Amino acid sequence: xxxxxxxxxxxxxxxxxxxxxxxxxxxxxxxxxxxxxxxxxxxxxxxxxxxxxxxxxxxxxxxxxxxxxxxxxxxxxxxxxxxxxxxxxxxxxxxxxxxxxxxxxxxxxxxxxxxxxxxxxxxxxxxxxxxxxxxxxxxxxxxxxxxxxxxxxxxxxxxxxxxxxxxxxxxxxxxxxxxxxxxxxxxxxxxxxxxxxxxxxxxxxxxxxxxxxxxxxxxxxxxxxxxxxxxxxxxxxxxxxxxxxxxxxxxxxxxxxxxxxxxxxxxxxxxxxxxxxxxxxxxxxxxxxxxxxxxxxxxxxxxxxxxxxxxxxxxxxxxxxxxxxxxxxxxxxxxxxxxxxxxxxxxxxxxxxxxxxxxxxxxxxxxxxxxxxxxxxxxxxxxxxxxxxxxxxxxxxxxxxxxxxxxxxxxxxxxxxxxxxxxxxxxxxxxxxxxxxxxxxxxxxxxxxxxxxxxxxxxxxxxxxxxxxxxxxxxxxxxxxxxxxxxxxxxxxxxxxxxxxxxxxxxxxxxxxxxxxxxxxxxxxxxxxxxxxxxxxxxxxxxxxxxxxxxxxxxxxxxxxxxxxxxxxxxxxxxxxxxxxxxxxxxxxxxxxxxx
RNA sequence: GGUCCUGUAGCUCAACUGGAUAGAGCAGCGGCCUUCUAAGCCGCAGGUUGUGGGUUCGAGCCCCGCCGGGAUCACCA
Length: 596
Fold this sequence. Notes:
This protein is of the alpha/beta class. It contains 21 helices and 14 strands. The strands form four sheets. It has a five-stranded parallel sheet with strand order 7-6-5-11-12, with helices on both faces. A four-stranded antiparallel sheet has the order 1-2-4-3. Helix 6 (167-179) crosses helix 8 and helix 8 crosses helix 9 (221-227). The longest helix is centred in the middle third of the chain and has 25 residues, at 192-216. The chain is globular and about 90 Å long. 41% of the residues are buried. It binds one RNA strand through helix 14, helix 15, strand 14, helix 17 and helix 19.
């Protein structure tokens, strides 16, 4: 049995035997003993003093004596202040290592047909411009959280809601019609999403010129903004779109399809994917119908001008508009429709929205609205809210050209990776194709790790100039350790060493025990990551594990060890470490190269 | 103004959810490659955890006040 559980049960029994108090083992906590003290696991006895009515030291000693007598695996203990440090038999840790070594699925729980089904929405781009750094954090978090949920025995449906309709895409369409000269991705060689994005920027420029011109002629700012021909043109296109105007719809479809093929390239490069894609052009009508049903059933109010509102003041929120006076729907309405469709399509146990914290209020409102509309799952939706990515000079602003483009960023990372690799010259014997594959893995590992290692809730800073480090607490450092282990295992295989059998006559060194214990906490890390929706937990664990391994690696030789049993044991230790690294990194969407 | 988030070394981030002397990396300084990958290892230096109270055997973490940063409160998405 798991030693942690044995100790908690033991402490519970000790409290009963010594002080006649009953405490559920679940309410007793153990922690790994800090390295500067002797022992493996530590129980803090301060909470028990009210039972024992004795000093912390004496209480800890009494419980320690009890545990040593009652539990075979506990071979000793020491007491420092109120901390009971328990020494576990080294044989136990050998057993633990071997069990983990032989479990190819170590740390993960497989899902079954009965497992909860979690739908994770992430990415959710607009179709008027390419993906940027902010989207990257979103995509990486969404993908990683999906993997983490899967590893905890959930079925996961990754979904993407594409905002393919609205005034923004009409702006790009307007500018393209006006000055596009029939430019296409094919005849220009430009990536589709970038091409459409360029026209969006063009529209903005044109619009500003027009507004400035009109203001010079004496119009107020508001008048000028409303009367700028470009804006009028875009609005007109939106109305035509809603009217199913053939020409507008065809252009819309054409330009969106360019964007989609561009997005596909970026998604593929990032290594993210989706099981089901929804389009707002297909869900917004469902939302509109829901809003109208709400009016009929007296849940919402229709104002004199025809607009539809939800009054949420009794829920501590404000008034929220659901349909404009012209009957068109807003973002919130679309989200209601999308949610309804999803629950029709899937037997969802939990809905997760990976969306930035700027929309906290939106999801609070969405949850209440769905609840009012009678959907019992409304209250249960979970907004996985994450912080913004900032640049050294503040936020990204498209108008100021400070947006970090996703494609450029990835390409830049690959360049750095290539340059670093070439300088080190460890891959000279490989083909170009093999090398490029390794550069790509390292570059993406660096980028993903860099972004995922910070607590999702927090705003994070990204400095493109300094680029991303490849030393220290970084993705490449973790990957490097993995590659290093693979190198050892390759050499062991080449010399026909066999190390899969269990070894018994080994007394592990302190550093080896620390490594085994670190490995053994992996399953707990996987569940913590899911409970907290935090890939950062996994990344930080990777770093600790790898640091521990490198210390071991430096201190002890594996293949030159003369004692066969010890060599086998160390190979098992190394291989298990590599397995855990690969598993942990896979939760972050990072692939480990076999050499680097 | 209301609501929510946030403040830890020069910089970027941790701290097992209230436990031992707050830890890493980068940047700086100094060591370690005829030995399994030096993208590594070891050492030095760097802190009144924004601030003042409170709760507790114990607070970076919980509560209250203040100060600084951010988000949001649209017939935008």
